[in-house]
């Protein structure tokens, strides 16, 4: 009798573990002042990164944050800063928890969502995340040991992402040089029109809308086959003729020409 009870207990424990592992596919809704989009998270493929992201989601950390960076036909980045209302120092950094281990298992193709991190430090991602506007796999799957893709924008969500990426970005050396700005133009910049909260692209909130274990059943993310081939984040190449490199060096992505 004792032997049978042990078998039943062991089987039940195994079943509970299996259930907890399977019940791990999550969909979140990103609500912005440019429209909403959904991200299906790859909980079972990148569990540490998804758990890290959801910790911030559940705490409301991303609510009223901003998309502070948009690089045309490359990425939009958010998750790490808020608008201060002070045009001299417009963005304030969200206080991060500890960094998360790199999990470069999936490819940085169009529509995927990945973590930004510090240059030359693969295991340094915290709060900053970005959406790939195009297939960036040739650089981002291998630079800095590969950038962790942990979700994908689904449905018609990329139309919202594209609309953000198509906004005016001042460039140059100003404090808003990489920020996508709504209802703002080069003429406004030339006339020293101040940027206001109405011009900033805001992430109003991110919420979990589905935690069913089958939400990713019909998705077929592309594997990352380049991670580990090139750990030099200063490498370049590609058909664009310049290295669009992704690194979170303190606060920012940076762009560097081939030498």
Automatic annotation (TrEMBL):
Which transformation does this protein catalyse, written as a reaction? [protein]-peptidylproline (omega=180) = [protein]-peptidylproline (omega=0)
User: Is this entry keyworded Isomerase?
Assistant: yes
The leader peptide range reads 1-25
In the Enzyme Commission scheme, what number(s) does this protein have?
5.2.1.8
Annotated region Disordered: where? 214-235
InterPro entries referenced in this protein's UniProt entry, alphabetically? Cyclophilin-like_dom_sf, Cyclophilin-type_PPIase_CS, Cyclophilin-type_PPIase_dom, Cyclophilin_A-like
- Tell me the enzyme class: isomerase
TM ranges? none
Source domain of life:
Bacteria
The UniProt record lists the PPIase cyclophilin-type domain at 24-191
Give me the stretches of Polar residues compositional bias.
214-232
By its UniProt entry, which PANTHER family does this protein fall under?
Answer: PEPTIDYL-PROLYL CIS-TRANS ISOMERASE-RELATED, PEPTIDYLPROLYL ISOMERASE DOMAIN AND WD REPEAT-CONTAINING PROTEIN 1
* Name of the protein in question: Peptidyl-prolyl cis-trans isomerase
Task: Look up and give the organism this protein is from.
Answer: Rheinheimera soli
